[in-house]
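If you are new to this repository, start here. Below is one unmodified record pulled from the training split, so you can see the exact layout before writing a loader.
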Amino acid sequence: MRKLTGVAMSVGLMLTSALAQGEDVFSTRNIGMDLARDIASEAVLACRKKGYQVAAVVVDRSATLRAALRDDLAARFTLQIAEEKANAVIMSGTDTGTFARNRKAIVPQLNEVDGIMILRGGVPIDAGGYRVGAIGVSGAPGGDIDEDCAKAALEKYAERLEFAE
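And here is the target side for that same chain:
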């Protein structure tokens, strides 16, 4: 009986150890440089076609900068604002316009957090069913236009995003 109990305990410890080790290492999906660059470029061009000079920033799923592009006449601050909009998407899990509408009471306090800005113009980037990053656009005369330019870029690359592995 002691031998059987000892074996059972050993097996139990091995299973517990295996489960703990399985949770210690995991894989994630992130947006690659080429796609990040293409999306940022397309967002800037989409706004340029409407007559606006903007910046677009793409961050990965952990809010690490992957691509940043500022149109020729866009103010330099548009890069910072675009990045902070993208970061807010990563923090909130939704586009910045929806977050601002749903959480009006805390938006002023969140806008005091270093590195995020809750203004319309930040949109999630999902690929193959995974959140891989976010895009922020800034510089048009209204966050709705910034958001439209971000969405236009994502629509252009919808096929690449849908079939990403």
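Two things worth knowing about this chain: The two ends are 51 Å apart (CA to CA). The CA atoms of residues 108 and 116 lie 11 Å apart.
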